[in-house]
């Protein structure tokens, strides 16, 4: 009897060992899982914080729009064609081909309709001081601006009209309408060439205002308040002769017109 009791207690003891070990193992697993959950929650919290931080850093930044063009207060020369009869070529301008003044009811005012592949320069020499501003408007009358090739404007050393583009260019701006958004600024005087983008496509049947500010050698050029150049384009020369040249190609009845030309200086 005593022996059987002893064997029973011994068997219970021996059986309890693995049960106890199994119980402790389960408790250990639970603790480890709980700890892992806590660590994961902390890490996830940091990730969320980082995500929020990244989201905040990606929020749109509003930049100040600066238009620092300051027109002169004293007019040197102005030409808006208002007194010119429709169909006539303005006497203040000379050309390699032809041109005619027209009225545009939808926009108002009178405009010089430029011939194809034609350059326009002033008939008389005007005095450009060291610091001056020059402004004019360009209008593309077309279904699409890429019906045109490139338009040029700038300064030359001579005032001849022997060719479409002068070999004596000092510097020029080039609007590549055929590419919709390409513009170039180049200076032979400074051996400089700059290419950038500007949305020309939206200017079909819309006026573009061009503003140029010259301070000795440095030139700023703006298209509708967007600065496209701010660099030295002269090389100690004095500005002599302004020119504007119409595109070589004007398809599907597309035409370029300009008006409201004015040169000013500061008193």
UniProtKB/TrEMBL annotation:
Which N-terminal stretch is annotated as signal sequence?
1-21
Source domain of life: Bacteria
Checking Gene3D superfamilies in the record gives: Exo-inulinase, domain 1
Protein name, as recorded = 3-keto-disaccharide hydrolase domain-containing protein
Give a yes or no for keyword Signal in this entry.
Answer: yes
Recorded hits in InterPro entries, A to Z, give:
ConA-like_dom_sf
Which species is this record about? Salegentibacter maritimus
Lineage at the top is: Bacteria, Pseudomonadati, Bacteroidota, Flavobacteriia, Flavobacteriales
Per UniProt, the keywords (alphabetical) are:
Signal
């Amino acid at each position: 009897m005593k022996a059987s009791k002893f064997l029973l207690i011994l068997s219970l003891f021996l059986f309890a060992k693995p049960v106890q070990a199994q119980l402790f193992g389960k408790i250990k697993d639970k603790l480890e899982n709980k700890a892992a959950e806590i660590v994961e929650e902390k890490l996830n919290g940091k990730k969320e914080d980082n995500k929020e931080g990244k989201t905040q850093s990606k929020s749109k930044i509003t930049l100040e729009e600066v238009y620092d063009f300051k027109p002169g207060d004293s007019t040197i020369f102005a030409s808006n064609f208002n007194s010119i009869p429709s169909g006539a070529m303005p006497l203040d301008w000379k050309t390699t081909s032809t041109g005619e003044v027209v009225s545009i009811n939808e926009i108002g005012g009178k405009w010089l309709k430029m011939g194809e592949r034609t350059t326009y320069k002033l008939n008389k020499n005007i005095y450009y001081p060291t610091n001056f501003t020059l402004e004019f408007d360009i209008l593309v009358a077309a279904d699409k601006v890429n019906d045109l090739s490139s338009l040029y404007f700038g300064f030359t050393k001579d005032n001849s009209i022997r060719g479409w583009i002068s070999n004596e260019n000092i510097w020029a701006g080039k609007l590549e309408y055929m590419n919709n958004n390409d513009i170039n600024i180049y200076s032979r005087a400074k051996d400089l060439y700059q290419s950038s983008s500007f949305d020309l496509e939206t200017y079909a049947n819309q006026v573009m205002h061009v503003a140029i500010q010259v301070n000795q050698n440095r030139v700023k050029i703006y298209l509708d308040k967007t600065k496209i150049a701010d660099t030295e384009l002269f090389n100690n020369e004095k500005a002599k002769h302004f020119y504007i040249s119409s595109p070589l190609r004007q398809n599907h009845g597309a035409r370029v017109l300009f008006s409201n030309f004015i040169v000013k200086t500061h008193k």
